[in-house]
């Protein structure tokens, strides 16, 4: 765990130091520290006041375990699929916002606007999002020019 690695440089650390070094939220730090304290891996001087950022924490010098591996509670992490879906929804929302203001726009200029606002996402993902919005009937292609899009109210 990242928190345990911080003890390589210091024998005693504070919650504030953990937060600045790891950039984790206080809730996650509190959960991790409670789990480490439960397993008697660390000792907190003021365990009741763990929410205080000045509480000092140190490793237990005589920690021993009968097990080869100590199982620690790992915070929930989002899967890559969830992150990709969130990104697609954000791109779709941006496309809708742009098309609401413009009304009619060429596909290439829409892709350029999305790429400048979203810090260079993949062009294929943007095209897939446009196709998805056409399927959902938020957008439609022009009957004469296939590269022209119209926003449907």
Automatic annotation (TrEMBL):
Pfam family of the protein (one): Cullin_Nedd8
Coiled-coil segments on the chain, per record: none
Signal sequence region: none
Highest taxon of source: Eukaryota
Name recorded for this polypeptide: Cullin neddylation domain-containing protein
Cullin neddylation domain sequence ranges: 83-147
